[in-house]
Amino acid sequence: MLGFYKYALGPVLLAQAARVRRSALRLPEPAGDRYGAVLAPGHAPPVRLLFVGDSSAVGVGVAHQDHALASQCAVLLSRRTGRSVEWRLVAKSGVDTAQALAMLGTHDIRPAEIAITALGVNDVTSQTASQRFLGDYQLLFDALRARAGVRFGVISGLPPMHEFSLIPYPLRWYLGEYAKRLDAQLRAWVASQPHLRYVSLGWTGAQQDLAADGYHPGPGQYRHWARLVAGNIAELLQAPADQAHGPSRVPDPARSGG
Question: Fewest CB atoms within 10 Å of the CB: 43, 92, 145, 249?
Answer without folding.
Answer: 43
